[in-house]
Amino acid sequence: MAEDLEKDYSAYFQTSNLDQELKPLIVGIDRMMLRLEEFDNCLELVKADSAVALMQHIPHLLALRPDLNALCDRIDGLEQFVAVVSKNLDAVEKQVQIAEEELDIPDKTLNVLLKSLNFFGKPKPTDRPTNRNAAGAYEPVPVFKTEHFFRPSPTSPGAEVQPAQDNASPSDDCDTGTPEK
After folding, report:
1. Are strands 150-152 and 161-163 parallel, antiparallel or unpaired?
2. Lowest-pLDDT range, 12-16, 104-108, 170-174?
3. pTM > 0.70
4. Are the C-beta atoms of 132 and 99 separated by less than 8 Å?
5. By Cβ atoms counted within 10 A, which residue in 6, 44, 56, 143 is the most buried?
6. Comparing C-alpha atoms, which of 16, 13, 99, 86 is closest to residue 107?
């Protein structure tokens, strides 16, 4: 039986062409080895680039952080300034509207024209808002001072403005005098 098996295997190896059967496997293995080598090269490049980033770029970015924080603080101050200006502008517009109503200055809209004609017989309201205090004197809206929000930068005098750190009261009148020291 062993002799028969030996003869069968011998006949099989003689008739079969192992080179042709194994050639696709060898080619596949070679291609896989080439791809693994390319992947290893790419991995080495990424490691080198990350080392450059760690050694050069990140310290440079960290050095810029104080300037970025200062810029963010200036932006926050500017947002606060815009909010105060908006609040003051709304108050002044309201006073102007009240003053126009008190002085019967017509607005150029159709709605005011219809109200002034009073077609439907509605009486005009008697207790309208006024800009006057209890003594009858005019009270202006307290307006912000830019000096409370912007001061010259110590590094470049007069060239750049920075938000001031003190909390200014928007109830102070606006003056045209010299900036506070």
Report:
1. antiparallel
2. 170-174
3. no
4. no
5. 143
6. 99
